[in-house]
Structures are given as structure tokens and as C-alpha cells.
């Protein structure tokens, strides 16, 4: 027999906290979707620009018969240019394949016409960005990390090919400038990546702590409800 003095254990505060947790979860999901979208857009723009520059440099470079270059320099230039273009084209291909699917979900979510006609709101889970997260990260790293480093290395190599026979001091000056630039870029990439990982870890720890507190509160409310039904 139920207790006549028993009141329903889920107070308005409990319901508000559950609602807030659901809203926070939705915000986190949309944040991940928009972050994936931004990464793919940045990757496509960066890769398109750098791969185009490398192809133009490879095609437009003019070497006369009087220019005698070491075979090692030819091989280095051809390998570096090929790898640079391949990395950026691969990142561009991933962005072009995945980005339309994410943008469609994002556009449908804010489409007023769909809302007026009673169509259900789209959810972040409708987008394939979570299942394809590994490919998105690969495109991001290839475009902004590995691809940018290869692009910086390509510049002094191109200067050596261009000025080897005419002005070696110009090629040496370019190399002296680009070596510290590459070192600074690598240091920045490592520091930025470590800080980003730490930020993600702190956010995840905070979210897990909030979920644990909510689970404890719900468990306590369920226990109170069970005792009240006796």
C-alpha cells in the first residue's frame, strides 16, 4: 500500500536540471558538428590554394639548356612537389566528399520553410561527422599541418632550382630565412596541439563530472520514490 504522505520525488528543480542536461548535450553535439564543418572548410580552402600554387610552380618554372642542376636537386624538387600536391589533393577530396552532408543537416536545422510545414527538426546525429571523424582529422592535419610544412620546404627548394645557375646567394638567403620559419612552425604546431588536447581533456572531465552528479541525483530520487511506494 502506498504511503498517503508520499509526494512525487522529482521536483521542479530536478526536472529543470534534467532539461538543462539535455540542452547542454544538444549544444555539445551541435558544437562538434560546426567544428567539423569549419575544419573541412578550412582544409578545402588551404589545400586548394597550396596545391594550385605547387602545380603552377612546377609547370611555369623555366629551365634553360645552360642551367646545369645537380641530379639530387631535380629529384628533391620532383619528389617534394609530387608529395605536396598529393597530400593537399587528398585533403581536398575528403573535404569535398564529407562537407556537403554536414552542410545539408546544418541548413535544414535552420530552415524556416521546413519548420513551417511541420517537418521534424534535424539533429546533429543525422550528420555523418561522428562516424567520419577520423577522416576529418586526417584532412585537417594533412592540410594545415603536414601540407603547410611541405609548402614551406618547397619554397627554398624552388629557389635553388630557379637561381642555382644565376644567383646562388639568393637561394642561400631564402634558405637562411625559411629554416627558422619551419622550426617556428613546428614548435607552434606542437604547442598548439598540446594546449588543444589539454582543453579538450578539461572539457571532457567537466562534462563527465556533471553527468555523474546528475546520475547520482536521479538515483537518489529513484530510491526515494521506491521507499515512498512501500
From TrEMBL:
This is Protein orai-2. It is a multi-pass membrane protein. Signal peptide: none annotated. Pfam families: Orai-1. The chain crosses the membrane at residues 75-99, 138-158, 170-193. Belongs to the Orai family. Keywords: Membrane, Transmembrane, Transmembrane helix. It is found in: Membrane. Gene3D superfamilies: Calcium release-activated calcium channel protein Orai. GO terms for cellular component: membrane. One of its GO terms (molecular function) is store-operated calcium channel activity. GO terms for biological process: store-operated calcium entry.
Amino acid at each position: 500500500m502506498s504511503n498517503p504522505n508520499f509526494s512525487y520525488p522529482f521536483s521542479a528543480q530536478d526536472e529543470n536540471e534534467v532539461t538543462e542536461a539535455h540542452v547542454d548535450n544538444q549544444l555539445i553535439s551541435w558544437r562538434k558538428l560546426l567544428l567539423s564543418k569549419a575544419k573541412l572548410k578550412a582544409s578545402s580552402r588551404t589545400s586548394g590554394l597550396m596545391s594550385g600554387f605547387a602545380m603552377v610552380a612546377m609547370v611555369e618554372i623555366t629551365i634553360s639548356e645552360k642551367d646545369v642542376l645537380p641530379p639530387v636537386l631535380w629529384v628533391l624538387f620532383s619528389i617534394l612537389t609530387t608529395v605536396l600536391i598529393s597530400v593537399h589533393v587528398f585533403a581536398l577530396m575528403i573535404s569535398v566528399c564529407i562537407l556537403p552532408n554536414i552542410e545539408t543537416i546544418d541548413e535544414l536545422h535552420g530552415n524556416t520553410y521546413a519548420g513551417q510545414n511541420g517537418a521534424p527538426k534535424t539533429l546533429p546525429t543525422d550528420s555523418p561527422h561522428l562516424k567520419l571523424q577520423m577522416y576529418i582529422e586526417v584532412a585537417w592535419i594533412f592540410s594545415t599541418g603536414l601540407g603547410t610544412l611541405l609548402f614551406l620546404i618547397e619554397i627554398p627548394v624552388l629557389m635553388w632550382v630557379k637561381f642555382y645557375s644565376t644567383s646562388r646567394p639568393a637561394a642561400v638567403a631564402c634558405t637562411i630565412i625559411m629554416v627558422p620559419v619551419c622550426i617556428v612552425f613546428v614548435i607552434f604546431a606542437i604547442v598548439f596541439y598540446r594546449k588543444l588536447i589539454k582543453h579538450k581533456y578539461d572539457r571532457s572531465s567537466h562534462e563527465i563530472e556533471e553527468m555523474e552528479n546528475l546520475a547520482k541525483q536521479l538515483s537518489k530520487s529513484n530510491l526515494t520514490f521506491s521507499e515512498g511506494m512501500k
